[in-house]
UniProtKB/TrEMBL annotation:
This is Acyl-coenzyme A thioesterase PaaI, contains HGG motif. It comes from Zhouia amylolytica. It holds the Pfam family DUF4442. It comes from the Bacteria.
């Protein structure tokens, strides 16, 4: 998986995220970075970034890590967000970068799901930081992962 391929995927499969300017900037087995710039199309009435746009960008950091680990393991795994919570600490204006560093957690959960055949749940954190390095929002996503069985 490369940022370019993921951004093309976003354009066709998640057009609202793509139109809002959400772009994957970096991906590897341990972390993912997604960037979005405050613009007219993604703002709220208070002239800052709408919370849902921040949520899409944050979820993408976690979901891309899960997708990447599933691809690496070459086993069919289902993935679904079960819960989410967020904290907003500063007005989101300018360029916001969301980062999730929970790749190793995902790898462990996928291996456990494959070995046991049981569903696994993990909480993943994505932190949004503005151009000054200030945290604007923190999102936590609970993902469920389960190895698919051949029937």
């Amino acid at each position: 998986m490369t940022p370019s391929k993921l951004n093309t995927f976003t354009m066709f499969k998640l057009p609202s995220a793509w139109l809002c300017g959400i772009r994957v900037k970096e991906i590897n087995e341990s972390h993912c970075k997604v960037r979005v710039k405050h613009r007219w199309i993604n703002q709220n009435p208070f002239k800052s970034m709408f919370w849902a746009v921040q949520g899409m960008a944050a979820e993408m950091t976690t979901g891309v890590l899960v997708m990447n680990q599933i691809k690496e393991n070459k086993k069919p795994i289902s993935m679904l967000v079960l819960n989410m919570n967020a904290n907003f600490s500063k007005k989101a204006v300018g360029r916001i970068t969301f980062t999730c560093k929970d790749g190793k957690l995902v790898n462990t959960a996928i291996k456990e799901a494959i070995e046991t055949g049981e569903g696994q749940t993990i909480w993943m954190k994505s932190i949004g930081v503005d151009e000054n390095g200030d945290v604007v929002s923190t999102f936590n996503f609970e993902w469920t992962l389960k190895a698919k069985t051949n029937k």
